[in-house]
Design a protein that fits this description.
about 325 residues; alpha/beta; 5-stranded mixed beta sheet; about 40% helix; elongated
């Protein structure tokens, strides 16, 4: 494994005692930790890993290292991906690895995009859960399906319904359902029918009294939901097609009961400008989670009393309530 650092020489990590030819200027050698987890952590301190077939005893071993690194968010530039290696890695991960080059990692925006995409693909195809499902499918063994995600969309604004529903409809995670909470009396007759015509999948529409808080409206949606996992999406936010997948995977690998993302990107519509606030502390138990990007396991959410009965600050309080109850929280990318 050879890890490329940003302002440092290339570091070759090799098992202790491995004879190497004289190294050129700008390249240094360090011992490869015996435990794979420690090796991955060491590699994560660099911009990425430059991987070559000569570094591995077999393609099976090589595929294992690549999957481990990608699942940890370490970008890998893999030279010489053979057909047999591609079969071990899977089509999605291979398609992402083939075009990635070391020069791409010098662009921190491209590096982050690669890191997120590679990790998502590796976890989706190479996690313990994914592997057991693949084994069961090969053997014809029936296993429970993936957890259903209930998306709670609460709004007081009929003008934003179409945008919010479109953001849920473009998600590629299955199974999922949409629960729309019409909060207040300012909705035209036939709104429920229009919502169902806009959303192609399972959909519930409930009414919430205008004098109730946003937290109350969200709890009404949770009570009506049928999913094991519950997420809140806002009517005026923009979500990638992989958003729900990201949160489901974060719940799996973190073991937390509440996960979310930080509100880093802000689009100023009136000047057509997108700003990024670098908040740091992603992939940690940092308590600041964006309200429109949280997902919780339903049972723990109900156990902490659901969403606080507040119209402002309910996002901060739900994180606080989970932590006070000893429930794990986590912020992904």
């Amino acid at each position: 494994l050879a890890a490329a650092a940003h302002d440092e020489p290339i570091t070759i990590m090799a098992p202790p005692g491995t004879p190497l030819p004289p190294l050129p200027d700008g390249v240094r050698q360090t011992d490869l930790p015996q435990r794979p987890r420690a090796a991955v952590r060491r590699a994560a301190e660099h911009l990425g890993v430059l991987d070559h077939p000569a570094f591995h005893a077999s393609e099976f071993e090589r595929a294992g290292w690549i999957a481990k690194l990608c699942a940890a968010g370490v970008p890998v530039c893999a030279e010489g991906i053979s057909d047999s290696l591609a079969e071990l890695l899977g089509a999605e991960l291979t398609a992402l690895l083939r075009p990635l080059r070391a020069r791409d990692l010098a662009d921190l925006d491209l590096r982050e995009r690669a890191s997120v995409a590679l990790r998502r693909a590796a976890l989706r195809d190479h996690s313990a859960t994914a592997r057991w499902r693949q084994i069961a499918a090969e053997l014809g063994i029936s296993v429970p399906g993936r957890a259903m995600v209930s998306v709670i969309l609460s709004t007081r604004r009929e003008s934003w319904l179409e945008h919010g529903i479109a953001q849920v409809a473009r998600q590629n995670y299955e199974p999922r359902e949409l629960v729309v909470c019409l909060h207040g009396d300012e909705f035209a007759p036939g709104t429920s029918e229009r919502i169902r015509s806009l959303y192609p999948g399972d959909c519930q529409v409930i009414r919430v009294d205008a004098d109730l808080t946003l937290g109350d409206a969200l709890n009404a949606g949770v009570e009506a939901s049928e999913g094991e996992l519950v997420t809140k999406m806002d009517d005026d936010d923009y979500y990638s097609t992989e958003h729900l997948w990201d949160l489901v995977l974060a719940l799996e690998y973190s073991g937390a009961d509440l996960v979310g993302k930080g509100a880093e990107f802000v689009y100023l519509q009136w000047v057509d400008l997108t700003m990024r606030r670098f908040m740091g502390d992603s992939e940690s138990d940092h308590p600041r989670l964006a309200g429109g990007a949280m997902m919780a396991r339903k049972a723990p959410l109900m156990a902490v009393g659901g969403w606080p009965s507040r119209s402002r600050g309910e996002d901060t309080w739900i994180v606080r309530n989970f932590k006070n109850a000893g429930r794990g929280t986590y912020r992904t990318h």
